[in-house]
Design goal:
5 helices
């Protein structure tokens, strides 16, 4: 346990949540956000007002498999107690997966090396039912080779202005996309993204373009044209948030934080 000034300690938590009933991560006056619910539970358990920071904010309807947060507290509790005690006070669709004391120089956002997201998509002539809210949906058949060809031009460091929401607060549109893997299992498609950071709505805007290429409405080479345009109007409409999951950040090994996402393997 590493203590900060005046006996305070810094804790990191791994959080999973279903985003369907919430207005995204970031605190809102309505109180109906993941951050609001988490801070309410932590404050009650710690007996003082707790303010958290997260590794990557998520939009309304987007899910989290391993969101990482940190906060400072004078409350001295065993790590296992932070998990059990906080979960007892949280809604059923939000859960602390682990708690770990970290040095005061650890910062869940600034210390993250990369961030990972995954989009899960159902290809079916009929809309999802039991998977509603957990997968995106397309009714047209998708072509793997076309989407892979389109995805290849996105890898590397680029100006992703064409995939940036107008409300994005990022200082720069230049990001380094290190991985964009596409896999299929039956009627389900999975798109895995990893980058140093992402712009607001970047993945959902990329998904809109990938789907248009996959179903034949646009050729694979169109993706490079959209990227080069650096203009949001050049890209497809923003895709549904339903199938988007924040898989979690990656940190340097010396922080010794858990990286396993226990829910990820259960997804289609």
């Amino acid at each position: 346990m590493t203590q900060d000034r005046q006996g305070w300690v810094r804790l990191a938590l791994g959080i999973s949540y279903h985003g369907g009933h919430y207005q995204g991560w970031q605190s809102q006056p309505s109180g109906q956000t993941i951050q609001d619910q988490l801070e309410k539970a932590l404050s009650q358990f710690a007996n003082h007002r707790v303010s958290t920071l997260c590794a990557g904010r998520t939009d309304a309807g987007v899910h989290g498999l391993m969101q990482v947060v940190h906060f400072d507290t004078p409350a001295l509790r065993p790590e296992a107690s932070w998990v059990r005690g906080t979960n007892a006070l949280l809604p059923r669709d939000i859960a602390v997966q682990w708690a770990q004391h970290v040095p005061p120089e650890f910062h869940c956002r600034a210390s993250a090396l990369t961030r990972r997201y995954s989009y899960h998509l159902l290809q079916s002539p009929v809309r999802p039912s039991v998977e509603q809210g957990r997968v995106g949906w397309v009714f047209r058949p998708l072509a793997m080779p076309a989407m892979q060809a389109a995805a290849a031009c996105l890898l590397g460091e680029h100006d992703f202005s064409s995939f940036r929401a107008s409300a994005c607060q990022a200082l720069s549109p230049v990001k380094h996309l290190m991985r964009l893997d596409i896999t299929q299992r039956g009627a389900y498609w999975r798109f895995d993204f990893e980058a140093n950071a992402f712009l607001h709505h970047m993945i959902r805007n990329l998904m809109g373009c990938l789907v248009m290429v996959g179903d034949g409405r646009k050729p694979p080479g169109w993706m490079a044209e959209v990227l080069a345009a650096r203009d949001r109007d050049a890209a497809a409409p923003t895709f549904s948030p339903d199938g988007l999951y924040f898989v979690g950040p990656r940190y340097a090994e010396h922080w010794q934080l858990p990286s396993h996402t226990p829910l990820f393997d259960l997804l289609p």
